[in-house]
Amino acid sequence: MPVPISQAWTVASYVLKQKIKGRKQYPLVLMLEPLYRCNLACAGCGKIQYPAHVLKQELSPEECFKAADECGTPMVSIPGGEPLMHSQIEKIVEGLVARKKYIYLCTNALLLKEKLHLFKPSKYLTFSVHLDGQKEHHDFSVCREGGYELAVEGMKEALKRGFRVTTNTTLFDGADPKSVRAFFDEMMELGVEGMMLSPGYSYDKAPDQKHFLGRARTRRLFRAILANRKPTWQFNQSMLFLEFLMGKRDFRCTPWGMPTYSIFGWQKPCYLLQDGYTDSFAELMSTTEWGNYGTESGNPKCANCMVHSGYEASGVDYTFSSLKGLWAAAKATLFTRNQDDEALLMLNEPVAPVHSYNPLVQIDSKSSKLEETRA
Ligand code: SF4
């Protein structure tokens, strides 16, 4: 079981309640960004590019609780920035645990070992550690030598003290599927509860705009990685979302599924784009032109996107929309092997060495061309 039964039950009953109420658009996971400050400056992340006066700001615990109460999701993901650098992160976590929210505290884990004493193990709290692959790949991806080792040290300590620990991995163009599979083995041997995956998205503010994946390349990469799956691998996310990444099914983006709240307010329409902010969650839901987003909308900013914050909630929504969806999710959970001989051959294809990515995919968010049409 990739997540504890109590969490699966809480999420399932929440989604079923939304369905019974006839709500077509409902939030599933609050993306709570209490600060943008970070102790890394990853090439694929634009958050650290904000000016100093923005990086200094933090949401107060009360503002975080108000956002969680307003949108009412059963799960809260806390990315950033680096949440462990927030001056009151333990108060934020404590208050959310008291509200029985399942929290994924997304951290690069550089500070995890020294800050662990601030937290108590709980079924509601998971440290979701950002690791982009094996040592060399991760350190290159986050532009910090030694980052992998420090993170693993923190994870071992957290596991020893009884915390829930998962990994979250973002894959970019040039990722080596064989190495990613070896990384999965390493993480499961370390004792993490499960892993989460997503392709990268080209933030307008990210300094490195050349190594984001287009849709056809995303599907090919994830098929090579996730077909012929080992039974030991556990994924802490929707199995239907993984099938979507492998190109086995298609979903429409549901950006309302993971609303984002930060020091600027509620972000339109999703974690990745910044088409304005609202003061309240109700205003976000009622004033966002949701039809203007998602690949099928023709919006060039969404053309190549397949990221979890747009499509994972789509997988969960599909699961609970019909018996067909429930059956598909059950099958994807029980029969995980996905035997695929062609995908095995893909593992032997040469990949660019990690330090010499070729700019084969160049996503220009101002261009309306789909990379898929060129693949
Ligand atoms: S397709 Fe991606 S960028 Fe566009 S709204 Fe959905 S999640 Fe955001």
Description of the molecule:
The protein is α/β, with parallel strands linked by helices and 375 residues long. Helices cover 36% and strands 11% of the residues. It has helices at residues 5-20, 52-55, 61-71, 89-98, 112-115, 135-141, 147-160, 177-190, 215-226, 239-245, 281-287, 308-319, 323-334, 341-346, and strands at 29-32, 75-78, 102-107, 125-130, 164-171, 194-199, 260-262, 265-267, 277-278. It has a 9-stranded mixed beta sheet. Helix 5 (112-115) links the parallel strand 3 (102-107) and strand 4. Helix 3 (61-71) runs parallel beside helix 4, helix 8 packs across helix 9 and helix 10 packs across helix 12 (308-319). The two termini are 36 Å apart. Residues 355-375 have low confidence and may be disordered. Residues 253, 255, 269-270, 272-273, 293-295, 301-302, 305, 307, 309-310 line the site of iron/sulfur cluster.
